[in-house]
Amino acid sequence: MIKIQDVIVPTKGTAKYFNIIALNFPMNPTSVTFYWQIFSETQNEEGVKIPGSSLMDGNIVMTSEEYAQWGTDDSYPILWAIQKLNFTII
Known about the structure:
Number of helices: 2
Number of domains: 1
Strand order of the largest sheet: 1-2-3-4
Number of strands: 4
Structural class: alpha+beta
Low-confidence stretches: none
């Protein structure tokens, strides 16, 4: 999970964490589909802050042009999605 600047989701709460999962990853992609979620924050039994409930989610599609920029840096899809969705990593 990636810690993000607070995102207020009306009627649901405040999201503080972001996660992304590749759903569709063809060998010669014309696009790649990802599933993203933002989560609230809660505390475990020891009082440590951890991700809580999912407050918002969706799919986001990376075009073949965006995929071509990926290279070998696996943080690329995270940073790409964060930017596309207008979230901020803290």
